Amino acid sequence: MSNGIIIIPTFNEIENIERLIRNIFSLQRKFHILVVDDNSPDQTAAKVKELQAEYFGSLFIEERKGKLGLGTAYIHGFRWALAHKYEYVFEMDADFSHNPNDLIRLYNTCEKNGADLAIGSRYVTGVNVINWPMSRVLLSWLASKYVRFVTGMDIHDTTAGFVCYKRTVLENINLDKIRFVGYAFQIEMKFKAYLQKFDIKEIPVIFTDRTKGSSKMSGGIISEAVFGVINMKLKSLFNKTSK
């Protein structure tokens, strides 16, 4: 039995999912995997189910009825992980933008170095992004700077989606009150942990843009992140006890 589980939301990731799963299961430290699939038309879920026979007891899948948003996929996964008693719960993209080898470093940051939340950071030691156009690098970097300024969080990569939570963090965040569903979800979860004074540590990682499949980024997702942050901060000022 592993004490750590990797949550991987998927929508049309058939080109990546098998290789990613095999990469994770080949690591020296053993993790379990939970795929949360939003009814992918390309049969991503079917491929995961096929692999379950090979990785019985270590690979799990939760299927949802449609594309319901990144945030709700992770919250679904968090609830599942808590119910199944995992001590360390990870977020990870399905497209190899996050290097599976870095999972061990995130785990050790929590398990050995005492962090409650470990973030795989693109910006803690400069800008570590490969294959993005400069316009997108600048947008992402400025977004993190903006969020850091508005919220006061001492986090360089506020929108990072490669993280490890200790169980206690997720137990103390009211998941019913998480309102963002796109990439702003990542900001909101970090902000909730920050408000409760959990120990948050960043470790440098290299982010590599996907080479297979298509990006899920949209204008609506960016707008949610930019304008929602101010509202989130203002609400925290009027409700100091909010989780």
From TrEMBL:
Which keywords, in A-to-Z order, does the entry hold?
A: Glycosyltransferase, Transferase
Q: Name one GO biological process term.
A: glycolipid biosynthetic process
Q: Which GO terms describe its cellular component?
A: membrane
Molecular functions per Gene Ontology: dolichyl-phosphate beta-D-mannosyltransferase activity
Superkingdom of origin = Bacteria
Per UniProt, residues of the Glycosyltransferase 2-like domain are 6-172
Please name the PANTHER family in this protein's record. DOLICHOL-PHOSPHATE MANNOSYLTRANSFERASE SUBUNIT 1 (PTHR43398)
Q: Which family does it belong to?
A: Belongs to the glycosyltransferase 2 family.
Protein name as catalogued: Polyprenol monophosphomannose synthase
